[in-house]
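Schema walk-through. Below, the input block comes first and the output block second. Nothing else is stored per chain. Lengths vary across the set, and this one has 248 residues.
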Amino acid sequence: MSSNSPNRKQKILIIEDDADIARLLRIHIEDLSHATDIVADGKIGLDRALSGEYSLVILDLMLPGLEGLEVCKEIRKQNAHLPILMLTAKSEEMDKVLGLELGADDYLTKPFSIRELIARMKALLRRSELEASEDGGDEPGLILFDDLEVDTEKRRASIRGEMIDLTAKEWELLLLFAQNPGRVYTRQELLDLVWGYQYDGYSHTVNSHINRLRAKIEKDPERPRYIITKRGLGYRFVEPTAVEVATT
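--- output ---
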């Protein structure tokens, strides 16, 4: 298991096939007293990322062996928490959005500022530490909304007794909503809270995640019962007449 404790040296995995960029990243990251490993192949990088050794992965989009988007997707299938900072030489909007929807936490387009990369990396590590500390707190284990169950400890949900296959971002959205029923969130607030940084101009990323989440938990996604649209404002999770909370 990897540790994000500030009292321990954090280890960063760099999956990048450009040797010059990889060395530059290593120099600046190790100046912050972090350890680094560099891998130039997507398949090998995926295996290393899943080893449990790392606090963060810096992942190039274009890689030999296995493309960065596929590496990101596979990491998220097995590890919902490991922060992923994606690097891409492409400027097309679809590549950025697809990377985020597959589970990347942030991205930078080459050429990028080392100062900005370090700032993004620090923000992701802080966020990961905060989530780890919250997981050890006194949050309720199971939140019940009629036939929808949200298990905050096992990080899974079920509807009418059937487990729901959720991506990392879909889970984070559902958890945020379920823990704050009745509260209205704007699209920008959801971007800030779930993606962890300002991402102006990409509200459609939230819309697409909301639509997919509705398709998984609503009997009729066109007439949602749980995730309600507040026109001109954003979204809120239904505030039931009785919300049962069970602790383990």
